[in-house]
Amino acid sequence: MAVSFDSSDSKSNSWLRWLVVIVLAVMVAVAAIPQYFSGHFPWQSPPSVANLETIRSLKDTGLSLDGWSEDLQQKISIGGDQWSVQQLTHANGPVPEQMIIFLKPQGLAKDQPEVEWIDLQGAQKWQTSHHRRLRLGTLHIDTFRAWTSSQTFAVSQWYALPQGGHPAPHHWFWQDQRYQWRRSERLPWVAVAVMVPMPPLGDITPVYPQLERLSQLVQTTLVEAVFSPESP
Length: 232
What we know:
The chain is an alpha+beta fold. The protein is built from 6 helices and 8 strands; from the N terminus they run αααβββαββββαβα. The chain has helices spanning 7-38, 52-56, 58-61, 116-124, 169-183, 208-227, and strands at residues 69-78, 81-90, 97-105, 127-136, 139-147, 152-160, 165-166, 190-197.
């Protein structure tokens, strides 16, 4: 079988490739030239994270939620990293609500979301089922039923960000690129897992509304008390 090549198409593709290279070079130059004139180079001063000390302190203090009393808060080691675990009770209604919150705050500016969910599941020795991703406005959460030989929980987990949140590490990566481009800072994050006790191996469906409400409460509190520029 004879194979022929269209030289005009080849030339067009060649010009297109050169055009892409030129556009990328211009974009790099526009971003880099101001830094050269100012004497600040990316490799000399890596981007910082706003409110990093406040974020780090979560592992020692946990998160304070309006209307919820803290029964327990302690710092624990999971996968070689420091997490905060809290047990909270809301007793204003006819039936007290309880939840457990795991928080793994960003420790250094260079830290990225990686294997937090694998570490947490392994440390808790969970078996899981009924995996489902829910979207609550700008907040996306992974939900599932988790159980051990003695307890069953409805669980939600996500990486909390200043604007919304998502459970996938790659979502943070792309958001971080845009954040650095616009603000010359790294995008802060906190790994969050919310656990609501439920009957042993019970149906998780009736628990979804409660799990959604509590996840939104935790996300809103993190934005206002930790990620906000006015945070202490």
